[in-house]
Amino acid sequence: MKAALALAAALLLTAQTPAAAPDPRRPAPTFDRVAPDLPALGRPAVLIVSKTNGYRHDSIAQAVPAIAALVKARGWSSFATENAAVFNPESLAKFDVIVFANASGDIYTPEQRAAFQSWIAKGGGFVGLHSAGDDSHPGWFVRMRGNGRFTGHPGGADQFQAADLVVKGRGHPATQHLPQRWRWTDEYYSWDAPPAADAHVIASLDESTLRLEPKYRMGDHALIWWRCEGRARIFYSALGHRAEAWSDPDHLRMVAGAIGWAARKEGRGCD
């Protein structure tokens, strides 16, 4: 009798306990099947992708319109979407650059992956920002990005720290406006290997200027680089977690330069 009463009480308690609310930063993965309708686009045109099948950054709300404004200021066209069905040959043919604005996760069906890879093989430009460098992406994407496996970032009170970035590539359109030592606050990523031998590092973290656990120390801690995937221009920056980044003039100018370079309108490389 006592056991039955205890079971009944437990069932009643379970029924009265509300289910945990979904975490908006950890959305359930989805795969899109119907491509979005595209507006008329002039060229150059930039596709801004912020779909998240991995961690979702609150700053996407600031990043997407900020990037669209940078593109508009050049007199170019842009289209922003969280629908990965845009990765089809007909839609991608209308774009010169794809920007991942804190996109995360494996977001593609096999057909969409093939369309993206084919577009890159034809020389399309790619700019990956912040969480394009995390551990949620498939292996072929990591190889295109051109560095090692993501191992994490500081947490707790140390998650966001001001630190010095050493700018090594001041001749690149993305970094030519920056000082040799750029003071910046962000969530700093680490990986288990530096960028590939064919990557050109243009900014690195000075690890002596912040608190960093030994497991996150890399020595030569690259944060911004570019590389070629055939003729395709591939650019990655680990910056841009916080909303404040998307109103900072130096950061926005860096992103604008990266897009101009990826579109083959500025700078050199991958010819």
The gist of it:
The protein has helices at residues 2-16, 60-73, 89-92, 110-121, 139-145, 249-262; strands spanning 45-49, 77-81, 97-101, 125-129, 150-152, 161-167, 181-186, 190-191, 200-205, 221-229, 232-237.
Low-confidence runs (pLDDT<50, min 5 residues)? Answer: none
Shape: globular
What's the β-strand tally? 11
Give the H and E element order.
Answer: HEHEHEHEHEEEEEEEH
Which CATH class?
A: Alpha Beta
Q: Major beta sheet, specifics?
A: 9 strands, mixed
Number of helices: 6
Write up this protein:
Helix 2 (60-73) crosses helix 6 (249-262). The strands form 2 sheets. This protein has a 9-stranded mixed β-sheet with strand order 2-1-3-4-11-10-9-6-7, with helices on one face. The termini are far apart. It has one domain: Class I glutamine amidotransferase (GATase) domain (Rossmann fold, 3-Layer(aba) Sandwich). The chain is 24% helix and 22% strand. The chain has helices at residues 2-16, 60-73, 89-92, 110-121, 139-145, 249-262; strands at 45-49, 77-81, 97-101, 125-129, 150-152, 161-167, 181-186, 190-191, 200-205, 221-229, 232-237. The longest helix is centred in the N-terminal third of the chain and has 15 residues, at 2-16. It has 6 helices and 11 strands. It is an alpha/beta fold. The protein is globular and about 50 Å long. Strand 10 and strand 11 (232-237) form a beta hairpin.
